[in-house]
Amino acid sequence: MPSKSPRRISHRHRPASDWVGRIALFCGVAVLGYQSIIFSVSQVAAKSRPASADAIISYDGRLIAAHAATLLTPTVNASERAKAAALSRAALRNDPTAVSAAATLGLVTLAQGDVANGKRLLAYAQMLSRRNFQTQLWSIEEAVGRGDVAGALRWYDIALRTKPDVSNILFPVLAGASHDPAIRTALVQTLAGNPLWANSYINFAAGQKDDPKSTASLFVDLRAHGVTIPASAQAAVINILLNAGNVDQAWRYYATIRPGVDRTRARDPRFAAMLETPSAFDWTTLSDNSIAISIQRTREGGMFEFSMPASIGGPVLQQIQLLPPGSYRLAGHSDGIAQDANALPYWMLTCRSNGSELGRVPVPNSAQTRGMFVGTLTVPANCPVQTLTLFAQPSDKIGGTSGQIYRVALTPLNAQGPS
Description:
With 419 residues, the chain is of the alpha+beta class. It has 16 helices and ten strands. A five-stranded antiparallel sheet has the order 1-4-9-6-7, with no helix packed on it. The protein has a five-stranded antiparallel sheet with strand order 2-3-10-5-8, with no helix packed on it.
């Protein structure tokens, strides 16, 4: 098997119609067994009688058609294809409105090289119903043959509206195809129409790791067309980009959803954002069943609160930083912290690539210095991505350790104005 994926080899050189053709062909192979679900009903009925399944359903054109459709598997041979054609003809004699029979016979006729009659049969199936999946796939192929990308995607829309359960087949193909800018443009127009499957597809695309840059571009285009991207999808694509090493792309997308952010300082110093699904660039709480942590609304904005039982400690809050090399001032305000010196919480800045520590700032007991804390951290030139984390140390006190952070600002040491 070659080491490069087909997508990576030829994105830039395939025309849009070729990509849609690849979509349709993939679907045609993947879903030929779909009608077996329908036929299983007749199989169950046949088991309760001594006659064969064919004898049981011979009087019902639709069940004969369902049987014929099950023969068109990805490994179908000439004999099975001929049987499918014969069953489809029988089905149409019994019931001229048997859509599946017309579609199956049309596909067999095309495979046998009779393009004109194959298209005629599939067009007839399409006229009978737009809900038949085989017909929908052929309609995609037919649109591709005309070079009609938008038309092909309209049929994808129809297929996903009428049979939402085929999204596990169609979504991966659409996600792969949207890497092509021309396909992405047409897909944006389709999703901007707010089809029933739009949010499901957006959430699916957000979780794909093969080309998160294309997903970010898709989301930017969708937002430009007034489409709301769920917060969970936004956070997912940012985190995937970041974890894949596409740091600048992750930040650029983040900046489109958080206007005015500055990579030279920490964000949301007063915990006012109150995000249900934060990205790695936002404040992210770190908890397990043994501790209680939350970000809560206050009149001044927000606060971070933590509570841990005795002898339990660890990281409770963090935010990814992209600080340029230099010295930085970390300052803030706490309340409710009252611990021995060896159990006080502290902020730590680490290098994300290797976890090396860049500095710590302890949070003294809140009764001291009116709850204020301040310290200096230094970022070296070889550490472009950092993690700022608040650690709560284990306490021997019966009540454990707890407290609130009302403000924390990380700014360049020579920055002017209030932090």
